[in-house]
Amino acid sequence: MEHISLCGYAAWPNRILITLDLKNKRVVEMRHYSIYGHELPIYQQSFIDSTVQALDSKADEDGFVALQAVLVEQDGIFRISKQHVSSPPGRLKRTPPAVGWEYVW
Questions:
Q1: 17-26, 58-67, 95-104 — which is least confidently predicted?
Q2: For the purposes of burial, counting CB atoms within 10 Å of the CB of 39, is it exposed (0-12), middle (13-18) or buried (19 or more)?
Q3: Which residues contact 68 (CB under 8 A, 6 or more apart)?
Q4: Helices 63-73 & 45-57 angle (0-180, nearest 10)
Q5: Whole-angstrom Cα distance, residue 97 to residue 30?
Q6: Which domain of life is it from (predicted)?
Q7: What is the pLDDT of residue 5?
Q8: Which pLDDT band holds residue 27 (cuts at 50, 70, 90)?
Q9: Does the pLDDT value for residue 26 go beyond 80?
Q10: What average pLDDT does the segment 34-58 reach?
Q11: Which of 14, 32, 31, 34 shows the shortest CA–CA distance to 81?
Q12: Which residue, 9, 10, 54, 86, could crosslink 69 as a Cys pair with Cβ 3.0–4.6 Å?
């Protein structure tokens, strides 16, 4: 396995998709999007930086050790916070949720 994607929530109903290259220990892609199909910017550069730093800290290790470091660093994406709720454009317009593998999990 070379690439793996971690899917989680930034704030309900906005999702984060982090695709990692475990062989070369690098971030392939980071997406922040709403369940309504809108791409959203990642406002916190620190989120990206901490993911890259977690991978870099395990540069001499196995890919799964690097993955574990990222999971520890970004474990918040697997929790839906009751305090942080977002209102993306689709929610305000009562748009139905988007369809596709990245929306159905």
A1: 95-104
A2: exposed
A3: none
A4: 150
A5: 21
A6: Eukaryota
A7: 94
A8: very high
A9: yes
A10: 87
A11: 14
A12: 54
> What phi and psi, each to the nearest 5 degrees, are found at residue 47?
-65, -45
Q: Is the pLDDT of residue 86 over 70?
A: no
AA letter at 102: E
Element (H, E) at 3: strand 3-11
What letter does residue 27 receive in the DSSP assignment? E
Give 36's contacts (C-beta < 8 A, 6+ positions apart).
Answer: 13, 88, 89, 90, 91, 95, 96, 97, 98
48 token code pair? 């990206």
pTM for the full model? 0.78
Distances (CA, A) of 82 to 36, 61, 79, 85: 20, 36, 9, 7
- Amino acid identity, position 84: H
Return the structure tokens found at 2.
């070379």
